[in-house]
């Protein structure tokens, strides 16, 4: 399990909600601000129709894995940190609402919408 009391994370430059283990996220967390620490994997950088970059990947810690979406405004600010296998502290909002499609409900697993990214070294 990721130790969120690790001295590396002792002083974070932001307060964006409770620190969580990604494996503990549930649909009940929908809309909540959280801070997570893990490794960015399976990174795919995409481009919007307007030419702005955004990214999709997974944040992995010892408790599990959660999908991480980094939309254009956040991507533009933190682009240098968004690399495969980066260790990141992520400030995010939990998205977990079910989607309606053709009259039926499609359940969604929780994922994170990043608002800020930091490396543990910058967090000191």
Model description:
With 124 residues, this protein is mainly beta. It is globular, with a radius of gyration of 15 Å. The two termini are 21 Å apart. It has one helix and eight strands; from the N terminus they run E-E-E-E-H-E-E-E-E. It has one helix spanning 72-78, and strands spanning 19-20, 33-47, 53-61, 64-70, 87-95, 99-101, 104-106, 111-118. The chain has a five-stranded mixed β-barrel with strand order 2-3-4-8-5. Strands 6-7 form a two-stranded antiparallel ribbon. The longest helix is centred in the middle third of the chain and has 7 residues, at 72-78. The protein has a single domain, classed as Beta Barrel (OB fold (Dihydrolipoamide Acetyltransferase, E2P)), CATH 2.40.50.
Briefly summarize what is shown.
By secondary structure, the protein is mostly beta strands. The chain is built from 1 helix and 8 strands, in the order ββββαββββ.
Strand order of the largest sheet: 2-3-4-8-5
Taking the alpha carbons of the first and last residues, their distance comes to 21 Å
Q: Are there runs of 5+ residues with pLDDT below 50, and where?
A: 1-5, 7-11
CATH architecture: Beta Barrel
Count of alpha/pi helices: 1
Described by strand count, sense and barrel closure, the largest sheet is:
5 strands, mixed, barrel
SSE arrangement, N to C: EEEEHEEEE
What CATH first level would be assigned?
Answer: Mainly Beta
Instruction: Give the overall form.
Output: globular
What's the rounded overall pLDDT mean? 83
């Amino acid at each position: 399990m990721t130790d969120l009391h690790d001295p590396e994370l002792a002083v974070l430059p932001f307060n964006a909600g409770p620190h969580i283990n990604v494996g503990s996220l549930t649909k009940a967390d929908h809309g909540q601000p959280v801070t997570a620490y893990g490794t960015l994997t399976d990174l795919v950088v995409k481009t919007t129709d307007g030419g702005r970059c955004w990214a999709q990947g997974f944040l992995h810690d010892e408790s599990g894995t959660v999908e991480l979406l980094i939309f254009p405004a956040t991507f533009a600010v933190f682009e240098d940190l968004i690399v495969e296998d980066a260790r990141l502290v992520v400030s995010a909002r939990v998205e977990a609402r079910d989607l309606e499609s053709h009259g039926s409900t499609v359940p969604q697993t929780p994922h994170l919408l990043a608002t800020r990214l930091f490396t543990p070294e910058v967090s000191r």
